[in-house]
Fold Phosphatidylglycerol--prolipoprotein diacylglyceryl transferase.
Amino acid sequence: MLTHPQFNPIALKLGPLSIHWYGLMYLVAFVLFIVLGRIHLKRRPELGWTAQQLDDLLFYGVIGVVVGGRLGEVLFFQPGYYFSHPLEILATWKGGMSFHGGFLGVLLAMWLYGRKHGKGFWQITDFIAPLVPTGLAAGRIGNFINGELWGRVADPSLPWAMVFPQVDTLPRHPSQLYQAAGEGLLLFALLWWFARAPRPLRATSAVFLIGYGVLRFAMEFFRTPDPGIFGTLSLGLSTAQWLCVPMVLAGVALMLHAYRRPAS
């Protein structure tokens, strides 16, 4: 049985400036987006993307993920706390970013980018889908360093069961690392492979929606559920799991539409 290392959330102090590990993980995510994006546009030049357009996409995406992710955490998961402590809404370095909120924020940002630069919405989402999961992995590693979003109680015989001293003395699943591996690395491998060759419009976006929704739904069984606006809902599922259901359904609908053949 392991014990969480209780990392110092501050990675580096430069005078009055404190650089937090959580913020550094976001920086890693954005760097990976650019690096993988440049590789992707070179292996798929027929998509018609340039390095400058990729940089512009990142700018829009950063705004979408930060604003949407924070608002999603506030509105979907802890509205009572944040409405009682409104200044804490700005304390993003402490963690607390909702994927589902960030996802909606990025979709809005990509729509705005498309309107300004003449790119189709699905053309944009198909291009960025393989570039997102490594950033999700980096975010989950940031959660682990912060010692937040810990897992459910685990069998003590599990070799990697971990005690989070800030919670209690019970062995728990290190669910942050499960999510980094599943929603991050596994989903990245799937999308990177799928997007290597031409696919129908919307298909890559559909794989992302289905893949993330299914993997997140499964990982929630190992993670202590966030309070959520409704707590634990019907069938004993968490708010995050129910938010994944429309993602998967939308992904299936998109996939069917993408591969639909006109009647002969």
